[in-house]
Write a structure and sequence with these properties.
The protein is built from 13 helices and 13 strands. It folds into two domains: 199 residues, Rossmann fold, CATH 3.40.50.11930; 172 residues, Rossmann fold (3-Layer(aba) Sandwich), CATH 3.40.50. The protein is of the alpha/beta class.
Amino acid sequence: MEPPQITIGLLWHSVNSDNLGIGALTVSQIAIVDRIADQLGIKVRYKVFGWRDPALPYIQRDDIDVYPLRTRALLRPGGLYSQVRKCDLVLDISAGDSFADIYGARRFMLNATAKTVVLAARRPLILSPQTIGPYQRWWARLIAGGIMRAAYKIVTRDALSTKVLKPFNFGEKLAEATDVAFRLPYDTPPARSGSKVRFGFNVSGLLFNGGYTKDNMFSLAVDYPKLVHAVVKHFTALPDCEVHLIGHVNSKTHVVEDDHRVAVELAGKYQDVIVAPRFDSPSAAKSYIATMDYFCGSRMHACIAAFSAGVPVLPIAYSRKFAGLFGTLGYNRTADCKTQTAEEILHAVIDGFEGRGELKGEVETGRKAAEVKLATYEDVLLEALKRFQCPSP
């Protein structure tokens, strides 16, 4: 007899996004579900729904079907609706933090529409660990509340998101975990020789270019490019330091997003800066980041890659998702571009470098907390896979 089967839709995931953070969520999500399915003796088929990207996929398997979305596919009966009807369960991760309106009304409505399609198709919807909110517009909060009330389960990845949802009184439907990317596989770096300290610095192309609108879209209190130059200038002047500029969104087609392009530009102005390659997978990026002795970055999943690999890290935030996620794990080392001055952030980066031994101990404590938090999400999935699996053929 064949094992029981389940078809799981992965909404707002991607197997080939230029944003390796979204890729990290997808690869990690599949790894988590695979392990639970093996435990239960269930055969899983995945349907991945996300934006169409031109890059080559970094995960290819016979049990993974990819359905790139276009806007019209959200509304056509033969589009997303038709494919979702073939699923037994849908896990929606909202690309980590897009079930909010900080990126604009259009992105929020696209996310909300896709979730509504799943609910219209009468399929159980689990909001996988993600940042939920903030909602700056009253109507966005109203729409989000209606969707979440109809969802099967809601799992946040930080205490701040959970706090936002408390007034909704979701009860046992609501759970708090942490980011699934803590499960992202990577190659443990071998021991190395050499006296120089490796400083990994991730510069966000999106912030460097002023956001999608190019006019300080995220209302930063600091001049981000000037801050970046100050950091690079300081660390390239240290004789015992080796500066690595590491992109985590590497896009040849979306210039405003591209971290790698900014890294190359900086390397042209500072001697002895090492520019990391354009990685072909999130695991490759994490494996490189794991070789650093200290790491700073403005892409949250680059910081999660460092943190989950045991590297002392100072996140440089542009939204509350950073402090929410790391703070929930008891790690309160985040610098904030919206509330601190450039001088304060520069000092924090330098202090972190000089005190990286202490940070490493705090990272280890936070990694243990992440394991406990992820167990909560795994329990949610375990119950869902048991409930929604198909009988043995």
